[in-house]
Amino acid sequence: MKNHTHPHPPRDNIGAFEPVHPERFAAAQKSTWVSIAINVLLTSCQVAGGALAHSQALMADGLHSLSDLLSDVLVLYANRHGSKHADADHPYGHARIETAATLILGTFLAVLGVVLLVAAAMRLQHPEVLQAVNPLALAIAIFALVAKEGLFRYMLAVAKRVRSQMLVANAWHARSDAASSLVVIAGVIGNLLGYIFFDLLAAAVVGVMIAHMGGKLALEAMAELIDTGLNEEEVEAIRQTLLNTHGVRGLHELRTRKMADNALVDAHVMVDPKISVSEGHYIAESARHAVLKKHHVMDVMVHIDPEDDLKAKPNAHLPSRPGLLAHLAERLGEPDLQHTRVVFHYLDGKVDTEIYLSSADQGFNCQPDELQARCNNLVRNDELFRVIHVHRSNAHN
């Protein structure tokens, strides 16, 4: 098996904090603080304005902005701790902290949306207590729409630049706020035109939008936490990259799983069974680096196979080298075989063998041609060996 080398080797958490991706960390910190400042302002204006203007929709949107504020704090925490280098306890790094934060954020939004929906539905059961809203609510809703749309465009641009799933999620959360503010505007206008229940109807719609967005984020994060693989198109592209590596004869058991904004890949690749261990290692390294270079992948584990072990007979029951040498020496009547260069190839439930004789091998009881004939006779009825080749050379290897 080819043991992978992690791109960020574990280190002790000693000294100052150093993020794995400084640019992503700095961009996330800056954009999140901008979002916090805007959401503090919006939450204050919407909740206070909703109360003064008697607008349930505006107050619901204010709670939505409050949820943004709380999620921003969560993003700050996850961005800092998720950007740490790998360590002894977390050899694959801390990127899944972002995923966990997205799951918490999504769950919180889903619950908040359901609460707002139920509250609005209950108030709609008593239309006699509904009130007309003050035009102030419309002005605040329009201000909130402009602010949230601007915040969404800013945060999405930053998220795409640094390729952060969590920042993308937070940006779309801001877009959902902009959409909810649009719904609030429609509800307030309807209320001002005499359709009093429009304001509560808008509040209910805002609740549905929040719940939908939260559920979507939570499900996506859960899919990653249970190691859901990459989509079919990405997997096929990685497969072709591996197959295009010189020396790779086949591929099976290609597996992928997401790790925040990256992916982890492991694959079994088939090579010529008679090449050296070092050449097999070289092919594995070549395949690994090709995937890392061409795809958004954090690390690749390449397992070298001499044959398709999903189709070939298993080899685990066969003896190890000492047992094979002892069996072969006994069957051939050549005890000096223990000191000769012998190469074993474990293939399809049996062993192919190469014996290399040199002028230094003086302890054999027969000549190489005779030894080959005896080997040919041995493999006709031997339970371990499938074929044995005797090679002659002028020097001892």
Please tell me the total number of domains: 3
Order of helices and strands: HHHHHHHEEHEHEEHE
Strand order of the largest sheet: 1-2-3
Gyration radius, to the nearest Å? 34 Å
- What is the CATH superfamily classification of the largest domain? Cation efflux protein transmembrane domain
Shape: rod-shaped
End-to-end Cα distance: 26 Å
Proportion of strand residues? 5-15%
Specify the biggest β-sheet.
3 strands, mixed
CATH architecture of the largest domain: Up-down Bundle
Name the poorly predicted regions. 1-17
| CATH topology name of the largest domain | Alpha-lytic protease prodomain-like
Annotation field: number of helices = 10
Name the structural class. Answer: alpha/beta
Average pLDDT, rounded to a whole number, is 81
Number of strands: 6
Name the helicity range: 55-70%
Structure description:
- This protein has 397 residues and is α/β, with parallel strands linked by helices.
- The chain contains 10 helices and 6 strands.
- The longest helix has 32 residues, at 22-53.
- The chain starts with 21 loop residues before the first helix and ends in a 5-residue tail after the last strand.
- The model is unreliable at 1-17 (pLDDT under 50).
